[in-house]
Automatic annotation (TrEMBL):
Name assigned to this protein: 30S ribosomal protein S16
GO CC field: cytoplasm; small ribosomal subunit
InterPro entries from the UniProt entry: Ribosomal_bS16 (IPR000307), Ribosomal_bS16_CS (IPR020592), Ribosomal_bS16_dom_sf (IPR023803)
Naturally occurring in which organism (per UniProt): Candidatus Woesebacteria bacterium GW2011_GWC2_31_9
Upper lineage: Bacteria, Candidatus Woeseibacteriota
An annotated GO BP: translation
Length: 73
């Protein structure tokens, strides 16, 4: 099973925030996640991430998507 680290959308219309999650690669954007790694609020430009969980998934071969790479810069 291939795993990706993606953004999953939550919140209300015009007031979205995103969770950074580890999910199976073929799952939908807001599908069931394996683990919540962090969150991102685009309105406040605030990113919270658990570095240990992120590093664990990347070490196990998880693919980091473009959106997550962009906000982690």
């Amino acid at each position: 099973m291939s795993v990706s680290i993606k953004l999953s959308r939550f919140g209300a219309k015009n007031n979205a925030f995103y969770r950074i999650v580890a999910v199976p690669t073929r799952s939908k954007r807001d599908g069931k996640s394996l683990e919540i790694i962090g969150s991102y609020d685009p309105h406040q430009k605030k990113t919270v991430i658990d570095k240990k969980k992120f590093d664990k998934w990347v070490a196990n071969g998880a693919i980091v998507t473009g959106g997550v790479k962009k906000i982690l810069k």
